[in-house]
């Protein structure tokens, strides 16, 4: 009888760090934490880390929250409520709750885990996977956990391969011929190359695998260190590199993709990057495959009717070209090109949108012309508004990014209306 290989994911849990605001997204995170920001037409950013864990076979998860977490918590409660405790499945939401001191919230990424040691103990797991909740990618964590075990490492770090010229923006690592990490450097001016290619550098993805008993002891010692910033990248990882064995795991070895497709990972942490990653989905063959039924991105789906296109006159035709239009949208006599519209967006006659990312429940009035824009949730675009043709005029009322993308929120429109 052939014995089946045990999946290590069954003995693992995922701890997702989702407490940071993501201030570089500007007003998009005024009301919600970065992992709760919408992405891809119907998902939230957090759905990618959670879906990767679920698809990898992990059925025990914890989500640490802190900054403006209501939108994130509500989304997870609605869209991720299918875990069953009787099957030993869990998704616990762990808000910063002053568990040790009335003045002490989560002081850093490591502290967010340390303050919940008793909860992790109750899971009875052997391995803990630490994840950032704010990146877009598809990855089989089972392969990374197995690499960790086979290497006999104290920590295994998920790594991107980036050109040396671009690596100064990352925490990077030097490795030996077996990808054992010999030094960990935070945003160095002269990043190290790799043994197989001196022109590229391994950059940290903020993904770590530990044996729980090892990490538990490390966290307890760190909590007692008044000189620590209680952060994985600043404190725990450099200490392991110095005193133990840290293993690099290359993302290309576990990235989920079709044969021949590029490795896909995006930090959508700026308005330009957020806009670009969403608009890229309108390409004929986008690098991120959201149609993959073998590795779906799970999310909360509202019960809405199909998208609707109405009017068919020469200058008043409901149409969309090279665009993604979500359920509940009504394209009424509008022209949509290279754009992504989220759920329940309504556009009205004689309006046009080109390279627009429009978040749910927005309404675009007649004769509006919008180009290279991000429109926040529930914004009501007034009749005749023109954006994307005069950057100086746009900058008087809206947020214009370095890349020329205009972010529009309802507060901005209200201030504009009050001053006219």
Automatic annotation (TrEMBL):
Assigned keywords, A-Z: ATP-binding, Carbohydrate metabolism, Glycogen biosynthesis, Glycogen metabolism, Nucleotide-binding, Nucleotidyltransferase, Transferase
Keyword Nucleotide-binding: yes
Record-annotated Glucose-1-phosphate adenylyltransferase/Bifunctional protein GlmU-like C-terminal hexapeptide domain positions: 305-408
Pfam families: Hexapep_GlmU, NTP_transferase
CDD domains found in the cross-reference section: ADP_Glucose_PP, LbH_G1P_AT_C
GO terms under biological process: glycogen biosynthetic process
InterPro entries found in the cross-reference section: ADP-Glc_PPase, ADP_Glu_pyroP_CS, GlgC_bac, GlmU/GlgC-like_hexapep, NTP_transferase_dom, Nucleotide-diphossugar_trans, Trimer_LpxA-like_sf
Residues binding alpha-D-glucose 1-phosphate, per UniProt: 106, 171, 186-187, 204
Site (Could play a key role in the communication between the regulatory and the substrate sites): 66, 105
Cited SUPFAM superfamilies: Nucleotide-diphospho-sugar transferases, Trimeric LpxA-like enzymes
Reaction catalysed by this enzyme: alpha-D-glucose 1-phosphate + ATP + H(+) = ADP-alpha-D-glucose + diphosphate
Record GO terms (molecular function): ATP binding; glucose-1-phosphate adenylyltransferase activity
Residue ranges occupied by any Nucleotidyl transferase domain in the UniProt entry: 14-282
Pathway: Glycan biosynthesis; glycogen biosynthesis
EC number(s) per entry: 2.7.7.27
NCBIfam families: glgC, PRK00725.1, PRK00844.1
UniProt function note: Involved in the biosynthesis of ADP-glucose, a building block required for the elongation reactions to produce glycogen. Catalyzes the reaction between ATP and alpha-D-glucose 1-phosphate (G1P) to produce pyrophosphate and ADP-Glc.
Homology family: Belongs to the bacterial/plant glucose-1-phosphate adenylyltransferase family.
Assembly: Homotetramer.
Stated name of the protein: Glucose-1-phosphate adenylyltransferase
